Amino acid sequence: MPVTPPTPEELSALAERDRLGLDPEGLAAFAPLVTGSFGAYDRVEELWAAEAPVAPQREWSWPAAGENAWGAWYVRCRVEGAPGGPLAGRTVAVKDNTAVAGVPMANGSRLVDGYVPARDATVVSRLLEAGATVTGKSVCEDLCFSGGSHTSHTGPVRNPWDPSRTTGGSSSGSAALLAAGEVDLATGGDQGGSVRMPAAMSGIVGHKPTHGLVPYTGAFPIESTIDHLGPMTRTVADAALALGVMAGPDGLDPRQPDAVVPTDYLAEIARGAEGLRVGVVTDGFGIDGLSAPGVDASVRAALDALAGAGLAVDEISVPWHRHAFDVWTVVATDGVVAQMIEGNGYGLNWDGLYDPDLIAHYGQRRADGGHLFSDTVKMVTMAGRHALAREHGRHYAMARNLLPTARAAYDAALAEHDVLVMPTVPILPSVIPAADAPPAESVARALEMIVNTAPTDVTGHPATSVPAPLADGLPVGMMIIGRRFDDATCLRVAHAYEQAVGGFPSPPVAAAVPAG
């Protein structure tokens, strides 16, 4: 629809907002100039209407009673891929922050619920072209801003290992469906650890690629410098296979460097990992007030298995690992408010493929009802708005300028070692808070576990989480960090570990909750 010019009262409010110093006579002089500028907006809308994609007719349904025991399905569908290909016959759950054309998308939020994308995300197109079948959208946390599994507007996602506990987030539904054996593969998104944290807490494999290796096109953004999509699977071989399908430039995502060369990750893991050097980052263990002894002991047992498989393992310190978390916190507070909140997800000023309909849908809902945000999103919105209002982005600029130092600290450690290892998350899966839990509890259960994963989102290094031995009967993750665009070595070490321990366990049948 045409842009409605501002009324005299609205124009006065706009001038007052930015203290433009216009009296009534000045406002009257500017009114026709402002109104005249919107002619181009109307013409652009007409031009776009001639080119905008139309959503295909795809059958979908809400999860039926009895098929959503974990609260992990947002919507069910069956989108058949190509008749042949490396993923032929494999089923995939797509995280509900990522578009499947013609199928509803909510991104875990009441403010996105009701939107139906017209175009498949690049990773979805690639999975379908490789022969996969998309069997539904998996629940994710509210706007993907939680490392727990209790913030989605559809309700909590429950862990197949213990239904009273979190799966981790924000790719919570993908993790639960994989752990329960309901799909072969799943997609995840990772801005603070949201592929790796649920992988660790649900006993599966999750790989966060190097920033820019996998196109983010068609997924709901949080902050473009930390946005990642990656595969979640039950085996490392499946992660390698899926990453090979998903990776590579699409020409639509400015997060990607001009030259991104995908690798045959399956061939790479077949090379083995004997003789590779593993740096055990002591800064990721024994975190005061947080680390569970069982988690640290489990990861050290996994490291013993790597040493037994012929890898060289030694302890190192990367002090900037702790500092990088603070850098991430500023980027993910100011940056999220500027892009995901004020910028209606996509923001402005970048050259790539936007989704005008999603921007408008979410923007209008946000304008009408920010009270529908989760406690976590409310917290970051208030903190970021205050910081930006008082400091005008000064701390964001400092954080971005510190990034080369933080990145160099990991790079220096990786010059002496092929990979770095630490616990994926320092805690065991926590009990899901009650729906009426106070904000302090809800936010703590959403953010307390991200200290080891978030740094590599801001530095861009690849990282794989694989299941370490159980602790108190619950899953633990070991995180393997590699050099940027050397995702293959992360997966080589992960595969060597999987072979050394004889594969990863599945949840006991006794953990199952009643259907429905």
From TrEMBL:
<dbReference type="InterPro" id="IPR036928">
    <property type="entry name" value="AS_sf"/>
</dbReference>
<dbReference type="InterPro" id="IPR023631">
    <property type="entry name" value="Amidase_dom"/>
</dbReference>
<protein>
    <submittedName>
        <fullName>Amidase</fullName>
        <ecNumber>3.5.1.4</ecNumber>
    </submittedName>
</protein>
<dbReference type="GO" id="GO:0004040">
    <property type="term" value="F:amidase activity"/>
</dbReference>
<dbReference type="InterPro" id="IPR020556">
    <property type="entry name" value="Amidase_CS"/>
</dbReference>
<dbReference type="Pfam" id="PF01425">
    <property type="entry name" value="Amidase"/>
</dbReference>
<feature type="region of interest" description="Disordered">
    <location>
        <begin position="150"/>
        <end position="173"/>
    </location>
</feature>
<dbReference type="InterPro" id="IPR000120">
    <property type="entry name" value="Amidase"/>
</dbReference>
<feature type="domain" description="Amidase">
    <location>
        <begin position="80"/>
        <end position="491"/>
    </location>
</feature>
<keyword id="KW-0378">Hydrolase</keyword>
